[in-house]
Amino acid sequence: MAVPLVWVAAGSQELCCSERFQPYNHGGYVVSRIAGTKLITKLVSHTKLKKNRVRLSVKAASEVSSAHFISESVSRTTDLAGLVTYDSGRPMLSSEKKAYDVVLKQAAMVKKAEKSQLLDVKPHLVPTGNLQILNEAYARCREVCANADTKTFYLGTLLMTPERQRAIWAIYVWGSRIDELVDGPNASHITPKALDRWEQRLQDLFNGSPHDMVDAALSDTVARYPVDIQLFRDMIEGMRMDLTKSRYKNFDELYLYCYYVAGTVGLMTVPIMGIAPESQATTESVYNSALALGIANQLTNILRDVGEDARRGRIYLPQDELAQSGLCDEDIFSGKVTNKWRSFMKDQIRRARMFFDDAEKGMGFIDPLSQDIRCN
Q1: For 187, which DSSP code?
Q2: What is the pLDDT of residue 117?
Q3: What is the C-alpha separation between 376 and 374, in angstroms, rounded?
Q4: What is the structure's pLDDT at 289?
Q5: How would you write 219-233 as a 3-class SS string?
Q6: Which backbone phi and psi does 82 adopt, to 5 degrees?
Q7: Are 213 and 137 within 8 A, CB to CB?
């Protein structure tokens, strides 16, 4: 089976070609892996091509790594408007490109904040009464985290600096409140309009007008750290999907859901944890790893909770891949473990592990004050 190539055109920028869709920046080039080899595509002007078209030639990137130069090259023509296709002409996963656009946007915010020295977190100059309320708000967030099912998450935050602890708690609690709306005991009564109201509430807290004490904690956090509101909006969009969608026809759809409900969390928290000052990694690569970690975690949750989700009438597995494996919804609902099911699950696990591998590349560049292993 031929390995699919992905081509990305974006002006005169150095571009990436990959079987995976998680490009990362290395030495000024956008690089990714294809069949285990780092490749890069270069834009080559060609006078015989039509206007606004270029030829992309692919070669092994000896320029960006110590890998042995491979002389083989491939070329094809593609548009310059952000078009992304396989060599077969089929579009790549649009969801992955959409998520990576958010990665770039968040990374740009952090870079701008670094230049403005906004990342040197200092206490707000607020009236004593408001400061007391704010401290109580963060204390409430801590209490919620400490009593949540994910005890290891809370224990991990205790190894961070006090300022970072508080910010992470505020984000966690806000996300858990959203999740409770669609998965909690009153989920059957929640409508899209309720999420619309929550999104307006989100805008209010970003504007410095929180509705309650817990909102106040997040409002203070986003005022201190460069976190994009789009990430929170996207998380709400993921909750909307849970209200209206119970099947995913392919991995493109499933990836988008995983980005909304989990990839966003990784991107929200990296501005707080920070990148090691001595790191040679680019901001984009670290954020892309955080995104991959969120995707990997959500895929793992999905594979763990197949039975529980089926009892709710939900199947968070690519329908086309189920069909290719000779499986259907009834096989999921019946709960029978067959050889077909085992083979299918092995492929799904392999995919999740690939995302964990991508995540591991950047997590070592997180500020040591936020890395559990370095804070002991």
Answers
A1: G
A2: 62
A3: 6
A4: 94
A5: HHHHHHCCCCHHHHH
A6: 80, 15
A7: yes
